[in-house]
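The records we work with from here on pair a chain with its fold. Taken together, the tokens spell out the fold as the letters spell out the chain. To see the layout at work, look at the sequence and tokens printed below.
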Amino acid sequence: MDLHQLKVFREAARAGSFTRSSERLHLSQSTISLHIKKLEEEFGVPLFLRTKRRVQLSEGGKRLLPYADRIFQELKNADLAVKAVGDMECGAIRLGSGGTTVTYVLPKVLRAFQARYHRIELIVTTGSTEALAQAVHQQTLDLAIVMQPVPSSLALELLPLLREELVYVIGSDHKLAAKSSLEPGEILEVPMISYLRGSAMQNVIDHYFRAMGVVPRITMEMENNEAIKALVRAGLGAAILPLCCVTGAQKSGIRVLRIRNFPLERNLALALPKANGLPRAVEKFASHLTKALSGKTVVEIRNEKP
């Protein structure tokens, strides 16, 4: 497989246009088309579906693209790894995390690392725990902050990071907002705004509902904390959210409550691929994350594990 042809394919896939990709690569459009044609002949399947206005990936192209991304990322990592032999402070790190953690927990942590290791490039991706764990398993991400549990079938090493409190939130105008805490049965008085059914976060919350012996009336499903908070603020329901994303929100139409005798929390862990030896930059960053969020280095956490 010709790497230059693969590079042309990758750029055309990203641009959705042979014309735009020719401009970015400084090649003629006929050259772009020729490279794509040769690659399609090699694979024996079309990689693009061509229309008058644009091109889009075929099923074969969709399957090839993530492999192409991985190949060029690994080439970049190889280049950085060799160049870093002298000082061991170069590299590229692909981190995955949930949107809540990126927004409310990581900014200061990432800034501190970047200030110390400014030659290490951080590439941050957000997604669901399920998608991030799979990406680390497939090594399209170097590491990810995920919510436990994750499937044991994945080839992952999980390092505990922190326990994050979850709280019950309701509009400040609701009568329950005057209480200091709630009994489990009282949450049945208000419709619930939940995360998407089947998501890791909603599975954790459903576990708590079963433990409390309640079946709340779910009227809306969302995947965005800000959307959930806006709906709660409008009086359209209650929700269970990470405390970090509602700290300070009580003055903006939201009341934070706890449920008596039922502390709620989620466990976050750092997922790493089960591999013999990680790049030095990844090891540095992993220890920075665990130290910042759990107070312990990777080595200390590993020594504590049975």
The domain at 3-65 is CATH 1.10.10.10 (Arc Repressor Mutant, subunit A). The first strand starts at residue 48 and ends at 50. Residues 10 and 65 are 7 Å apart (CA to CA).
